[in-house]
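Thread amino acids onto this structure.
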């Protein structure tokens, strides 16, 4: 079972490049990032995220073209099942996952259009800092440079 915090669900414009994303905060985080911006998400809070919840959220938020899971929770099979549901029912809505792990399984890359990996390391900064250890992939292509300030985007390798 995947749990989320309904009160924190929001439409965001800056988490996934060029997307209007419905961001859902997932609890039971398995990470242990020092300086975590949401340490309360390590606990077992919120309510179960079901396919019916996802359907309602997408239908109630006209213009959303990406569903973003902010965290993986502690039930990978349930997470993958929800991603499959979105792909089948809403083929025009892309899926995104923010993981704090250094690497994820191939199945995750197959089910999610966007995958962010890497634990937050405060000294290295978030995605919008060129020094970050975190990476955002779009169909396995590193697009992290798209978060960097103008003028730096052509310096990525």
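Threaded sequence (157 positions):
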């Amino acid at each position: 079972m995947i749990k989320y915090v309904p009160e924190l669900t929001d439409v965001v414009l800056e988490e996934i490049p060029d997307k209007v994303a419905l961001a859902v905060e997932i609890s039971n985080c398995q990470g242990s990032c020092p300086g975590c911006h949401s340490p309360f998400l390590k606990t077992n809070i919120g309510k179960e995220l079901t396919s019916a919840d996802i359907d309602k959220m997408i239908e109630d938020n006209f213009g959303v073209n990406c569903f973003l899971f902010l965290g993986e929770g502690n039930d990978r099979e349930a997470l993958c099942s929800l991603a499959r549901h979105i792909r089948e029912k809403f083929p025009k809505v892309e899926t995104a996952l923010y993981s704090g792990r250094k690497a994820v399984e191939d199945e995750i890359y197959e089910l999610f259009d966007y995958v962010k990996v890497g634990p937050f390391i405060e000294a290295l900064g978030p995605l919008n800092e060129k020094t970050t250890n975190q990476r955002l992939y779009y169909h396995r292509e590193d697009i992290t440079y798209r978060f960097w300030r103008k003028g730096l985007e052509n310096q990525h390798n």
